[in-house]
């Protein structure tokens, strides 16, 4: 594994999610238009639907709103079924987001949703009305009704308001949700495919330069030579002819006591598939829980067996050419165990010599999340 490759993979994964979200949000913000706008001077005479509710008739109430929010005028229209429309005008240079937030905070709600910081839908907990609150400087408009469907209908009955045609992101998505979800699904599928391939590339180790690749049987023999050493892990044939599985000797009487004394709770398995055509070894890491029976801390009386696996894919362990573990290679590429080494039974101690044997045999080490050629190449 190369640190630079991993950094590029992480950067790509982050950007592939964040960049589209930012682009969509910016586009939605720039193309947002309020559903209704004020198109005529707002006076009691121009509002055809009467009567005005008590708040608008009470000069003290209007004066109080002016003191708190710098309201130029506040007109409220009461509907027979209990709904209402409120139009509040502010100075042209007023801080509309701040005024919008102040009004929003004063509404007792049990649920609400804010869109782009300027369009709020909510449900009041005091009277059960549904509401919409948005601003189009210098106006803030509110409509509250018993049903969601009646909210826009109330706006349409106010003579000084004009309904805006849907545009921008809202127009793009409205009525086209099937297409939208289809595009998102295709993008996510392509993204997963790219992530899988980039993860494999980022964690891969290229073959040693200047070395002619060994035949597949010679490489297999070198890997199986680990079984002739006193290493605490072994390789055994898998279900397929070109498959080997490396795993710790958790059932070996010599090593089980050391593992138990160290409180080992999970162990790694590495599945290898040797591809003689491309001279690549595809590897898949699996981390399994280790279940102890007997006196787990007493050494020789303990026994262990594998329980369910909780990870399958690529464990991004750093490959370090200067790492000296318990299993090292001699000058003629033969594995040998260091008697003085204290084993920690982590995946790097197993993976490091495997990578060294494979790359020094002129083969590439290619970690994969799945062995599907379509997904991981």
From TrEMBL:
It comes from the Bacteria. Keywords: Membrane, Transmembrane, Transmembrane helix. The chain crosses the membrane at residues 7-30, 177-196. This is Uncharacterized protein. It comes from Thiorhodovibrio frisius. The lineage of its organism: Bacteria, Pseudomonadati, Pseudomonadota, Gammaproteobacteria, Chromatiales.
């Amino acid at each position: 594994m190369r640190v630079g490759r991993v950094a590029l993979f992480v950067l790509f994964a982050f950007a592939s999610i964040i960049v589209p979200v930012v682009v969509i949000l910016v586009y939605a913000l720039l193309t947002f238009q309020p559903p209704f706008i004020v198109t005529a001077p707002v006076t009691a005479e121009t509002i055809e639907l009467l009567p005005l509710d008590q708040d608008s008739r009470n000069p003290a109430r209007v004066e109080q709103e002016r003191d708190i929010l710098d309201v130029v005028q506040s007109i409220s229209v009461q509907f027979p079924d209990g709904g209402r429309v409120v139009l509040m005008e502010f100075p042209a240079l007023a801080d509309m987001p701040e005024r919008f937030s102040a009004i929003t905070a004063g509404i007792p709600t049990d649920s609400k949703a804010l869109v782009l910081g300027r369009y709020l839908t909510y449900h009041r907990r005091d009277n059960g009305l549904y509401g919409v609150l948005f601003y189009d400087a210098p106006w803030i408009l509110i409509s509250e009704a018993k049903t969601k469907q009646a909210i826009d209908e109330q706006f349409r009955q106010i003579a000084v308001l004009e309904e805006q045609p849907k545009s921008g992101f809202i127009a793009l998505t409205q009525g086209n949700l099937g297409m939208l979800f289809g595009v998102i699904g295709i993008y996510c599928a392509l993204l997963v495919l790219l992530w899988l391939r980039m993860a494999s590339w980022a964690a891969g180790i290229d073959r040693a330069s200047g070395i002619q690749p060994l035949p597949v049987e010679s490489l297999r023999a070198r890997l199986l030579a680990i079984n002739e050493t006193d290493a605490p892990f072994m390789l055994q044939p898998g279900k397929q002819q070109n498959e080997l599985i490396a795993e710790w000797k958790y059932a070996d009487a010599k090593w089980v006591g050391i593992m138990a004394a160290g409180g080992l709770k999970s162990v790694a398995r590495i599945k290898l598939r040797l591809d003689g055509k491309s001279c690549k070894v595809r590897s898949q890491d699996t981390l399994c829980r280790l279940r102890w029976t007997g006196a787990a801390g007493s050494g020789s009386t303990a026994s262990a067996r594998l329980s369910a696996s909780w990870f399958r894919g690529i464990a991004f362990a750093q490959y370090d050419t200067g790492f000296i573990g318990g299993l090292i290679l001699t000058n003629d590429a033969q594995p040998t165990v260091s008697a003085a080494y204290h084993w920690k039974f982590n995946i790097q101690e197993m993976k490091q010599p495997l990578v060294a044997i494979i790359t020094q045999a002129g083969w590439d080490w290619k970690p994969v999340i799945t062995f599907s050629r379509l997904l991981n190449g």
